[in-house]
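Hi, does anyone understand the following?
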Amino acid sequence: MTPRQVVLRYGIAYLFWFATLAIAVVCANTVRVTYPILLDYWRWDSSSISVADQVAVIVMALAMVALIVAAEHMYRTAVPAKKLMQPASGIIAVLLATLGVAHATQFYVELQYGMTNPTSVVLFVAELALAIFLWWWRHRLKRRHSQTSASVVL
């Protein structure tokens, strides 16, 4: 690889890292909005919801830091192996699935209270469909890479 290609590939890796960071922030915010709604639906008192919110913020912050560090490492190490799309599609698929589940939960609670919002349906269906597609694509890329490696060995 030429130095220009190396810089371009690492640039793309860090763009994926930034996109992962942005999706993770949206995901954390959506989860933070969703679980108090769910706890209220389960009839928790407001002081318990407040404590759960404070604990969850700490847990989500630690999870975000771990995700950011792990994603950066996975993307950076995938560049020399020319496998950047595998970790990127896997991580983004998990984040989108989490978003989809959070929006599906919001829609379920809205239905129980008789306040349906079509935006929730569109969001959770689109997020889950995209997550499934990315997960399928990730496994397709893995299978293709393993077949290519096996043919080189033979």
In short: The mean pLDDT is 89. Residues 3-144 form one domain. Residues 3-41 form the longest helix (39 residues).
